[in-house]
Model the fold of this input.
Amino acid sequence: MTSKRSLTASIAFPAPLKIGLCFPDHFSEAEEKCAEVSKWLEQYAVSTWTLPLPQSFPDALREKMSTLIEETDLLICVGGDGTVLKAFELVSSRDIPVLGIRLGRLGFLAEVIESEIEQTLREIMENRSLVFERNLIDGLVVGHDTSFSALNDIVIGRDSIGSTISILAEIDETLVAEYRADAVIIATATGSTGYSLSAGGPILHPSERSIVMTPVAPHLTRSNSLIVPPQSEIRLTLVRGNESGALLSFDGIRQHHLNNGDSILVKSSARVAKFVTTNGGHDFYSKVAKRLGWLRADYVSVYDNPDDSN
Done:
């Protein structure tokens, strides 16, 4: 069987001189692992700093992070995908590559597992790693001068249980649907394996720049997802929310209240997120198949067992 390289475009990543480490402030195991990584990196005389991430980001933390990340070449996030998203939100404007280390639970952004940490760090410090880029999307609340980027998704959803909300969806000024649903998700290829997937959306390769639009639990409406080309613009308008309106979420971190009649414009961003991987990086499709349980645990490839005729 012929081996094929990943479809994701990548460039060589030079060994970093200054590395930041972050972890969820409530996760003691992640804190211990950060300390171990920092200790291990001492052999390369690299400068490091460590910062615990709280559940919310007060302005004081943003100011502290702004000071710490000066001249930082790599940010290592220890925990899970949520940790990566939170950390990226703080450094997204600085174009700093990220490496995610996963402890325990399922993850797609935090790719490195515990048994791979030292080998991955060694390859990074010995100039044997790569940077690949993931698409971002920008969301602008019309008339409110509120604009943020998202690595995973932008979601308009109800702010209380018990009733649906009504959202008009337009693509390039063409009305395509009125969703009466719990929410509508606009996801990047990165976010296609997150909330969008749980709502029945398709999985896109992380190199893909297209955008996925998926309704959540639509009522009397087909629940088909739409894959929108990166040059197009999506406009979502809240026609009918709950009494208090609805919530707009960027990667589940930043939230903005919407009133009936409010609209948000979503399009592919001119900026990208940079992630570090090693030359022996994991194949996306095999990773998805393994983590989503598409193959039996005892599955043996016919290429590994060519004489098996069953």
User: Anything to note?
Assistant: The helical segments are 28-41, 59-68, 81-91, 117-125, 195-198, 284-291. Residues 28-41 form the longest helix (14 residues).
